[in-house]
Design a protein that fits this description.
The chain is of the alpha/beta class. The protein is built from twelve helices and twelve strands.
């Protein structure tokens, strides 16, 4: 069962030492949600940090004003550990032991495949972004949303709604963002930082990725992949391949877009997006992954080329009729 925002808010307000855990390979929702919550808890006098295990992506670094740390000894056993935008401990593998040292654990997430595993849980698959849930939690705690907090929440919501284009965008989404404007946010500044801050290396690696593009099922499915060799050749970071799967989905006639990332020779991460009717969360779940109906992912323990063939066969089985 879910807990109320009031229950979770009381837990946080009655605690002193709090660690927040966004998922590995942070996106805008994970980063923005964690930063916004960290900032308001600090404003309430709490000792709070966002504990991470990988580098903050360059296009999201504008939000980090001393909130993020990789130092697991930044505090002893926290009163509360909060995982943000991630529904299981596998999403923050190098921090699990620290997470378990806290007196209480909280999960705030919007992925429908999330199973309640913490002492307190707020999981709402109907929410367009975890940032919307954090907004409601902050309001319940009666803590101020200033410009910096508002811009972090705006970043969370705009990224997980595809600039308010995805089908998860609702009237509530726009009402929340409208209220964020009252805090003085500069939406254009945030959007430029997130979407218009690309490196030449990103452009080069994306070109190589698109050379691998192929379609199946009469163009209903588009797939491409990136290898470690491509990254090495172009000097790009894996994080700079974000956005490719959305480009594939934007192709005319494509219902499902699939992007495969070679982690090593026996491990491939798969990102899937659908446009209107396909349930990619169900497809991801068949590989032990999950996510949303229109956006999901999984890890396959095969090479990237083997994983490509495995995914193609699954798509044919699922959508071939």
């Amino acid at each position: 069962m879910n807990n109320t925002f009031q229950e979770i808010g009381n837990v946080l307000l009655n605690s002193e030492n709090i660690l927040l855990y966004p998922h590995l390979n942070m996106d805008g929702d994970a980063m923005g949600s964690a930063v916004a919550l960290c900032r308001v808890l600090r404003s309430a006098g709490k000792n709070c940090y966002v504990l991470i295990e990988d580098k903050v992506p360059d296009n999201l670094a504008f939000m980090d004003h001393g909130y993020c740390t990789m130092d697991q000894n930044i505090m002893g056993s926290p009163d509360v550990s909060v995982c943000v935008d991630c529904g299981d401990e596998g999403r923050f593998p190098a921090r699990v032991d620290k997470f378990r040292t806290s007196k209480l654990t909280v999960c705030i997430d919007h992925h429908r495949t999330t199973e309640n595993f913490c002492d307190y849980n707020c999981v709402d698959p109907g929410s367009a972004a975890t940032g919307q849930l954090i907004f409601k939690l902050i309001k319940e705690m009666n803590l101020p949303i200033d410009k910096e907090t508002g811009e972090a929440l705006f970043a969370a919501i705009t990224t997980d709604t595809g600039n308010f284009q995805y089908s998860n965008t609702t009237e509530e989404t726009h009402r929340i963002v409208a209220e964020l404007y009252e805090s003085g946010i500069e939406a254009n500044k945030v959007s430029v930082a997130i979407y218009e801050n690309n490196s030449i290396q990103r452009l080069m690696v994306n070109g190589k990725i698109l050379e691998t593009l192929e379609t199946i099922l009469d163009g209903k499915c588009a797939l491409c992949y990136v290898t470690q060799a491509m990254l090495e050749e172009t000097g790009a970071m894996m994080e700079e391949t974000e956005g490719i799967v959305q480009q594939l989905r934007a192709l005319a006639g494509v219902e499902v877009a699939v992007f495969l990332k070679e982690k090593d020779e026996n491990t491939t991460k798969v990102s899937m997006r659908s446009k209107s009717y396909a349930d990619v969360a169900e497809i991801a779940a068949s590989f032990g992954g999950g996510g949303h109906i229109r956006a999901a992912g999984a890890t396959i323990n095969h090479s990237v080329t083997e994983s490509l063939e495995i995914i193609k066969q699954k798509l044919i089985e699922s959508l071939g009729a």
